[in-house]
């Protein structure tokens, strides 16, 4: 089980407070689809994903990104209980959506990159370390109910 | 074998031209040691690695980071023959340094994050995708001579 120090928690919360979840969510999901194009296979119903600009501007991508990142916000509130917090989503991604859990790590990395582009110098090594731990914990929690 | 499309090559050259290899190298290696602390085991002779600020300020870390990134930079001139370009370094990392090749992927990801942090919005999805491809290619090339 991932354990966060008080300092790591406060680092994470402090940055999360400044994140525009709607915008960052759309950007994270969009970049996942651009940088790792095979992930587009899960989003065939989303319409035009034919180029980087089509993907980043696609309203369904933005809406779904917002949904995904809002749910990630639950992780921030439940850092000591990630596995239970994501149990249902884990079952959903395994049983219904059939998503390879490797993709959770890819999305986590993309999120860290977006935070870096948005926060620049403020995204110090400590902040990066805390967030890397969180996204890794979430990826593990999402994979936990896989069978 | 064409590794990058002409457009992707353009993105890489254009961004790399603005990179301060010395500074970015030190930062990337430093962040690797902070975010993935087990990597410090390869650098026991480097002195004080006891905290993020000690690591980021450590002159041996900065110097070695510059060396690593200069080698990476060399790779960027030979994108169609990464395996050839990194053959000797691959043998060195396997036979002498005994570095787990997974660490090359970690360093590649850290480098992408440092570029994102420095360039902000200019590190757009297309540029991000091109660099992710390059770091993956370099990591593969460095693992290629492992036995």
Automatic annotation (TrEMBL), chain A:
The molecule here is called Hemoglobin subunit epsilon 1
UniProt keywords, alphabetically: Heme, Iron, Metal-binding, Oxygen transport, Transport
**Ranges of residues in domain Globin:** 3-147
Family to which this protein belongs = Belongs to the globin family.
CDD domains tied to this protein: Hb-beta-like
- One CC-aspect GO term: haptoglobin-hemoglobin complex
Domain of life of the organism encoding this protein: Eukaryota
| Gene3D superfamilies reported for this sequence | Globins
InterPro entries in the cross-refs = Globin (IPR000971), Globin-like_sf (IPR009050), Globin/Proto (IPR012292), Hemoglobin_b (IPR002337), Hemoglobin_oxygen_transport (IPR050056)
GO BP field: hydrogen peroxide catabolic process
Which Pfam family is an annotated match for this chain, by its short name? Globin
Query: Which GO MF terms are attached to this record?
Result: haptoglobin binding; heme binding; hemoglobin alpha binding; metal ion binding; organic acid binding; oxygen binding; oxygen carrier activity; peroxidase activity
UniProtKB/TrEMBL annotation, chain B:
Cellular component terms (Gene Ontology) = blood microparticle; haptoglobin-hemoglobin complex; hemoglobin complex
Gene3D superfamilies tied to this protein: Globins
PROSITE patterns, sorted = GLOBIN (PS01033)
GO terms classed as biological process: hydrogen peroxide catabolic process
Which GO molecular function, any one, fits this protein according to its record?
metal ion binding
Which CDD domains does the annotation name? Answer: Hb-beta-like
List the coiled-coil residues: none
Q: Identify the domain of life.
A: Eukaryota
What keyword terms does UniProt attach to this protein?
Heme, Iron, Metal-binding, Oxygen transport, Transport
Q: Where is the Globin domain?
A: 3-147
Q: Which PANTHER family match?
A: HEMOGLOBIN FAMILY MEMBER, HEMOGLOBIN SUBUNIT BETA
Return the similarity comment: Belongs to the globin family.
Protein name as it appears in the record? Globin domain-containing protein
Q: Which organism is it from?
A: Microcebus murinus
């Amino acid at each position: 089980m991932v354990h966060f120090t008080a300092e790591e928690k406060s680092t994470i919360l402090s940055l999360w407070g400044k994140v525009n979840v709607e915008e960052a969510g759309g950007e994270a999901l969009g970049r996942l689809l651009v940088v790792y194009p095979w992930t587009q296979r899960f989003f065939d119903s989303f319409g035009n994903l034919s180029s980087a600009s089509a993907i980043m501007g696609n309203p369904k991508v933005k809406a779904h990104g917002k949904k995904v990142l809002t749910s990630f916000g639950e992780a921030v509130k439940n850092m000591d209980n990630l596995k239970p917090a994501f149990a249902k989503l884990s079952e959903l991604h395994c049983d219904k959506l059939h998503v390879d859990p490797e993709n959770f790590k890819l999305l986590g990395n993309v999120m860290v990159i977006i935070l870096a582009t948005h926060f620049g110098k403020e995204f110090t090594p400590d902040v990066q370390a805390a967030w890397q731990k969180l996204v890794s914990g979430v990826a593990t929690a999402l994979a936990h109910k896989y069978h | 074998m064409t590794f990058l499309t002409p457009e992707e090559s353009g993105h890489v050259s254009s961004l790399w031209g603005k990179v301060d290899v010395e500074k970015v190298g030190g930062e990337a290696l430093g962040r690797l040691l902070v975010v993935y602390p087990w990597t410090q085991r390869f650098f026991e002779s480097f002195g004080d690695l006891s905290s993020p600020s000690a690591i980021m300020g450590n002159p041996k870390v900065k110097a070695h980071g510059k060396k690593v990134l200069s080698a990476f930079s060399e790779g960027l001139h030979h994108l169609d023959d990464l395996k050839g370009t990194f053959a000797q370094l691959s043998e060195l990392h396997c036979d002498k340094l005994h570095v787990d090749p997974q660490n090359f992927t970690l360093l590649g990801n850290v480098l992408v994050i440092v570029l994102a942090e420095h360039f902000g919005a200019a590190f757009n999805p297309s540029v991000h995708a091109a660099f992710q491809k390059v770091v993956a290619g370099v990591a593969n090339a460095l693992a290629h001579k492992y036995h």
